Amino acid sequence: MSTIDFLPLSSPLISTNGGAKLYFQVTNTSAETLNLYWIDMSGKLVSYGSIPPGATRMQDTSSSHVWELASDDGKMGFKFLANIPGDIKVGADLQPGFTSFEEKIIRTPDGLWSTTMGYGLIDVEASLGVSHANELPMNGQNNYASLNAIHAPSAWAAGITGKGVKVAVVDSGIAMHSEISGKIVGGYDFQDRDSDPSPDDGAYRDHSLGVAAIIAASHAPQYGRDTMGVAPDAQLLNVRVGSSQGSSSDNMAAGIRWAVDNGAKVICMPLQSSSPQIDKTVQDAIHYAFQHNVVTVLIGGNYSSFVPTGPALIGQVLKGELIDVGNYDIMSGSPFPSSNQPGANPFPWVMASSTGWVPNPDGGYSYWNDGGTSFAGPYVAGLAALLWQQNPNATAAEIIKKITAGAALGNSKALGEFETAQVGSPAADTANAAAGASYDLGGGVDLLKFASPKSAYTLTHNGDGSWEVFNRADHSSNHLVNVERLQFADVTLALDVGKGELAGEIYRLYQAAFGRTPDPAGLSFWMNALDHGTSLEQIAKEFVTSSEFRSLYGASPSNADLVNAAYHNVLQRAPDTDGLNFWVDGMNHGVSPAGLLVQFSESAENVLNVAKVIGQGFTYTPYS
Known about the structure:
This protein is of the alpha/beta class.
């Protein structure tokens, strides 16, 4: 386990520029007040406040910044360079200890557990055991990226939409919007003690509406901005237990019990607190829900804590009686920095994304890149509704188990389970996957074959570019390096989707040239050509002479028109003046239309945009 060093106050350490952004926390269990100082680049002490006995303080920092912690009475003091996230605990003897917050993988009877992601990102397809279906198109202002990340369309293709299941939103009151018109079938206001659970006009008037829409918003086609619900045919109970100023534990408990007594099968309570204490009143109400076969979904919290806080702490006590949710960043493949983490004590905790457009009380929509655990939780509540429709005679415990099992992590590298690595050649290699083996197949476009359908596995893309393939049946895991393609019993998957990687290049070129997802036959043909030595610019030349390209970019566009169209069609934005002038000048001095297309297609901006769609690989039909 990584650690940091604590040095005497006399140590000549000062902060420097650069370093990675991270955080640390200080837990003061001594009887003294502790004072926190940042030591700036000139060695000057900059006060960052005090930490009283019994308190915990979270602090953002850089890995190149030096800090000092000293007691009020001068009996204790030390300097440290916080180059990894963790908890600095000062005990009764005024001596510091350190617990790293770096991710650790733990094997449990229910699967692999990550201290940062719990059982991992939910997978609707895996939890329901249904076949894979086509993903939603990524071409508008909506929440489709978050739905695709959890394979929600696979449930709808199988006819599972949450029909007949009531989901209670226990929060600050759902505002009306066309997305949820007719979905609310009951409610009560425990804040004002009346039958009108409408929200107040404060900061959180849109909160419950966003939650409700993610659960059950309409799938009716519409132009422009849109939100789709995970369980579009579920019914909603509007249970108001607080206002924009907060919610009392008595109200929360009463709301939970009312929801149970009025037919809810799922309770989604997107309320958080930074408290390190268990609220017994709320705990008893959640236990009541579990006894009546209701699944409660709580949010993990947004305090960057290594462990849950507030209501989410109940998940550690009533293990298996509810499920907590962390906030997953689909761009980074890891939790948002604001999200609480589950820690080293396994219990039902999963991840979901909060990114996307959701409706607001003004009749429009609002975009959230990081919508907090509040907008991650309803994706899990929606999955619970789907599972109840599919398994009406199940128990709440069984529904929770299906959610965590479907979200099983594929990263067992930290457990040392891998056999000696299978090493490939500089040319294209084909191998059959063996349970527990790791593979580095070297150069070329390499193919690894798996015996079962893709739904039997969980894939995880690691930060270092490697992949883990976790087999849900035997709990073995394969660690993959330099493996470009995977062949399952039912589909073939391309993993080489990053900048400069062949499958990703041709997928992006299709979207850049034609503004659409590649057709299977064309994708198969041109991937094969690229795999066997045809350059990307040669393919781009073929694309720009096509009638489809001319219909999108114009029959005979000027250089300025072509550049302007590339900005709008590829990057989905208007050109900045400097960029427009740069590329027009380039075309005036010899850059061809095909060359321009390749430059825009492989630009860092477009690679990042398209990663939302293909960042976890994409299926294709091998060319024959």
